Fold:
Amino acid sequence: MKKILYSSFIRFIIVGILATGIHYGLYYILQRKINVNAAYSIGYIASFIVNFYLTAYFTFAKKPSWKKAFGFGGAHLCNYIIHISLLNFFLWIGISKSLAPIPVFCIAIPLNFLLVRFVFTNKSANF
Structure:
């Protein structure tokens, strides 16, 4: 059981790095032109789509479904609220727009793993 959890966590990290790169890359480009919350949200949505499919196929070796998409979306809605709240907090305390997402990722990504793992592995949830 530990080996399965460990390997899914490693795959989660790989997918997370890619999704985070997409998120941060879009945010970094867009935050110079539009409101930071809008830029962050656009990056989040793009990374969400990539993340869902890679998490299903690569991380947990499960076929994506609408039920999983809604569960994943629910987990990510909670995660998004954490992300946007932390982003605004770090901006408020004076961290630059370019660097503020970095501590957000450090806090929110481990929490997201627990939520997403529940969606893809909880048999009683009928996902």
The chain has one domain: 2-120. Residues 24 and 48 are 12 Å apart (CA to CA). Residues 2-120 form one domain. The two ends are 21 Å apart (CA to CA).
